[in-house]
Design a protein that fits this description.
globular, 11 helices
């Protein structure tokens, strides 16, 4: 650590608020624990949970830095006591529980993936959060598999675009919803099998029509609220409903007998608070099942816009506007 600075620039607001609280401040460079690497951050992904944290609604787990940011890409510049020094200099991207909006970030080695040749740091930083989320929820909890039909809300979001990509790779028919005709066209251009403008069409009726009355085998939902009961009407018998966010409300009223009669499964998860052991298992699965597609160029994130770290407030305004298609990324350093 002798050649590294003691201080760094980071986005670490001291109180919740609007995007204007996201101003660069000086913070100590973190020191990696025994199983962690220190990454000089080249780029950091911006995610919806970052907005919630900024507003005071999604505090970091105990012991995790208050610096925003859940995914980074860059170069390993130091390693913890249990890790070999030969790792220094390797390009890595990582899922982190916090600390991404900074010049340096620590990450457990188990939550890191090597950045292959041909993948830019901006692209690498845009992958971990959505890839871990979609894989663990749509494919593990939702058991999406070849031949299934998946309904994914928010088709132009980072989650939505990653879900489309993975469904295409693994033979899953994917129906998405989006809020304008332009977004519908963008989803179709990205590879969605079908896209529904939820503002002008009844997505329940459209899913039934598109599946010839059978319904979707799995639903990936980030809306919650009254969408849950509507999603159930879209589901095939033995269908799985996976909740990953509650942007439309944290409470839902559902017909319990319908769950029983049609053998439906309602489940969900959050990722940030899961322990390192779980995230390491997921990273191992991804390295085997998905990372070869990244390495050979078949899987790339959709990048909406990039902003320098000092313009994190503008990045959040872009996300809150809902106008983005794919991932918003902060660039850091040279």
């Amino acid at each position: 650590m002798t050649s590294l600075p003691d201080r760094m620039m980071a986005i670490d607001p001291d109180q919740p608020g609007g995007p204007e609280v996201l101003v660069p401040v000086e913070r100590p460079v973190p020191v990696p624990r025994a199983d962690e690497v220190l990454i000089r951050v080249a780029a950091a992904g911006v995610n919806r949970p970052d907005v919630l944290q900024r507003m005071g609604g999604y505090p970091p787990p105990p012991g995790v830095t208050s610096i925003l940011g859940l995914e980074v890409a860059g170069e390993v510049v130091a390693v913890g006591a249990d890790l070999p020094p030969e790792m220094i200099g390797q390009p890595m991207c990582a899922l982190v529980a916090g600390g991404g909006y900074a010049e340096y970030a620590v990450a457990p080695l188990g939550q890191c993936l090597s950045v292959p040749d041909g993948l830019s740091m901006v692209e690498a930083a845009a992958i971990p959060e959505t890839l871990f989320t979609v894989w663990t929820n749509l494919f593990e909890r939702g058991y999406a598999s070849e031949g299934d039909v998946a309904l994914v809300h928010g088709g132009t979001s980072g989650i939505g675009t990653m879900a489309i990509s993975l469904c295409n790779l693994f033979g899953v028919t994917v129906i998405v919803t989006a809020g304008s005709d332009e977004k519908v066209a963008a989803c179709l251009a990205h590879g969605a099998t079908h896209a529904i403008n939820y503002k002008t069409e009844d997505f329940v009726a459209r899913v039934k029509d598109l599946t010839e009355g059978r319904g979707a085998n799995v639903v990936l939902d980030m809306v919650g609220g009254e969408y849950v009961a509507r999603n159930m009407k879209c589901m095939a018998d033995d269908g799985r409903h996976v909740s990953i966010a509650v942007q439309g409300g944290a409470m839902a009223t559902v017909p319990v007998f319908e769950i029983m009669r049609r053998r439906l499964t309602l489940t969900g998860s959050t990722l940030r608070a899961r322990d390192t052991a779980f995230k390491t298992l997921v990273a191992d699965e991804l390295s085997r099942a998905v990372w070869p597609y990244v390495a050979d160029g078949q899987l790339r994130p959709v990048i909406d816009r990039t902003y320098p770290l000092a313009q994190a407030a503008e990045a959040h305004r872009r996300m809150e506007s809902g106008a983005h298609m794919g991932k918003i990324v902060l660039t850091i350093g040279d």
